[in-house]
Design goal:
Number of domains: 1
CATH class: Alpha Beta
Structural class: alpha+beta
Shape: globular
CATH architecture: 3-Layer(aba) Sandwich
Largest sheet: 8 strands, antiparallel
């Protein structure tokens, strides 16, 4: 009996990180079947995103992501000629993490100096922002937080309406996965 208890405890300890991480994040992002006709997956820019990859690709964000206690993430990228769509989900240890990253992203976007970039609050998840040009023709970025998740959908050349629809679809998946 004691051997069974020890084995069960060891199995629980070994499996705990996977259980804490939650569902398969790749199922939460925008999929190829969701994007407009003609878009194709960019394989080199689609897949799980470890902390090590994030720190290498975004060294300025390293301290923020460490402070926010990021666990893991997933990104999907699609292209059609010069048009693109990027979808992203990041999972954190607690609900404080996505709030830290959303505030950081908002600050970086306001400092970016992108001409004609508008910014407005958006009713999505627990808190969200919409960034983009006035008509949403050239650039639309939707970022939000939901519980322990930071999420975003960005597009170039797709339009604000379509990008918002993709973001809301992704949010429904996140809400269903995390209850």
């Amino acid at each position: 009996m004691r051997l069974v208890l020890v084995a069960a405890t060891a199995a629980l300890v070994l499996c705990l990180p996977a259980v804490a991480a939650g569902p398969d994040l790749g199922k939460l992002v925008v999929r190829a079947s969701d994007v407009p006709k003609g878009f194709v997956v960019v394989p080199d820019e689609t897949g799980p995103r470890s902390n090590e990859q994030e720190w290498r690709d975004e060294p300025d964000a390293r301290r923020v992501l460490q402070r926010a206690q990021r666990l893991t993430g997933y990104e999907a990228r699609f292209e059609r000629g010069a048009d693109d769509i990027t979808s992203r989900v990041d999972l954190f240890r607690s609900t404080a993490g996505p709030r830290i990253v959303l505030d950081y992203f908002d600050l970086e976007m306001r400092k970016s100096g992108i001409r004609g970039l508008g910014r407005s609050r958006l009713a999505i998840g627990d808190e969200g922002w919409l960034f983009g040009d006035r008509e949403g023709r050239y650039l639309t970025i939707v970022v939000w937080r939901e519980g322990r998740v930071f999420s975003g959908v960005a597009s170039g050349g797709v339009g604000r309406t379509r990008t918002l629809a993709l973001a809301r679809l992704q949010q429904r998946r996140i809400a269903a996965a995390f209850g």
